[in-house]
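Let's practice the habit of predicting before peeking. Look at the sequence and jot down your guess about where helices and strands might fall. Then scroll down.
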Amino acid sequence: MLTYRNHTIGFTTLLLLAFATGCGDSDKATGTRGLTAPNVLSSAPADGACPNTIVTATFSEAMNASTIDGSDFTVVGPGGAPVAGAVTYDDSSNTAIFIPEDNLGVSTSYTATITTRAADLFGYHLASDFTWTFTTAPVNCRSASPPISVTPPDNSTGICQFSVVAAIFPQAMNPATLNPATFTVTGPGGVPVAGTVAHDTTNKIFTFTPAADLALNTVYTVTITSGAQDAFGNALASNFVWTFTTAASACAAGSPPTVISVSPPSGASGVCPNTVVTATFSEAMNRATVNTTTFKLAAPGPTPVAGAVIMDGTAKVAEFTPSANLAVNTLYTATITTGAQDQGGSGLVSNFVWSFTTAAQSCQAGVPLGSAATFDAVGGSTVTNTGPTTIAGGDLGLSPGSAITGFPPGTMIPPAKIHKTDTTAAQAQLDVTVAYNYLAGLQGGAVLPGDLSGLTFAPGLYKNSSTVKLSAGNVTLDGQGNANAVFIFQIASTLTTLGSTHVVLAGNAQAKNVYWQVGSSATLGTNSFFKGTIVALQSITLDTGANLQGRALARNGAVTFDSNTVVIP
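Done guessing? Here is the structure:
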């Protein structure tokens, strides 16, 4: 229930859907801010497409996958009749994919549309709806769709001699039909390269690993023949071919790969039982070597947890998704073995092992903060401080900005550390982007008033399409007896609290479960007390004496302190 001054308004309880990586980290798609809105570079299919075709649109830059779904990417037939289907987004190729539930009609005209809700990683939307039409073939030609991305890319040069060749299909393929006879690599004169073919658990990613290093300064041709079939027995309509050229001199063997971050973090407790376990590697890995044999999860006892392992488009992030929710109040141990190898064939030097404990009861979905969860503040441009600010419980990070100033007189309480434009800060900023996109992409929710003064909020999702302020007194967040209750506030523009105002937690509500997504900048007033994690697109400012039990995570702008106390929840 929401109490608005002297009136009470009922809200439907919102069940927050789990993020693809549950309560933990996830893959870290990146992009660069452009001077213009994103656009669609190419679309498919063309006229004459097989009725069992998929529909795709490739963007000019990385997009926020949460803004591309079945309501924003649609296909309609004659008379505007909608085509039922599923929408996915491939972040390795910046491609949105519409997969019809059934074959399209023959000799039929269709119109595909992607709306302006589609946005890039910085929140910039398409300038206008993108629409195209195509007409299917007059016969039911039944062919599988070719790969949507390949590695090494077509016509690429300077490829290392130990590279692994990979193809990603938009649909599940029949693994028995992709083998050294149908997935081939040949050198000059058509001489075949010996190697093995493997696939991931989705049967969409197939890799060819040469038995020995490739020759230097040599053009290689990769062919996936029409013998390759999808899960329904549809073959490729024709051979799919691409080429690449190896480097003129041998690439130096790099250091063995390492695991640079995991989620849930090692030693974490109160982890949601529906969590997905992730590991981020220091470099791209050979997908075929990261599987349920080399990435395992176990509770006390001899039986491992059943699940599936997939790699993201960068081949750096592995996700272990349990087949069922984990048991409550249980210690789990995750292990990545030395069998996990990079694309040069180097494995981990030793097994990487970490543990975490699940919550005592089922909990609502959390927000994927990743490594940013260990920071009190992360800035994008600068972090500045005036006066005796205290940072406690978490680190202070800046990436990719220019300077951190004012420490001292600001104090970092050990073991808190400052990370200025290093790899730790860079990873944290990537994870801030993931968290921001997740929060901004949540659908539904109740109306969030423009002034929070005197209001009480129950757990759930609330959103405001403009500015929000706390002009006087308190706003209360009532967990209603549930210590795992989650509060998420979506604010399209600025968040401002005036002097001496308070965010009050009641009913076992905890600051670690409170999130404020701010589409512009946030300012906490003089001597105010604020609770929860602020994830802002631009800057975050704490005026003199403001107290924050939470995190100040700014994607692009500055974080500014002035005689504040900041304690990680």
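How did you do? Residues 1-35 have pLDDT under 50 and may be disordered.
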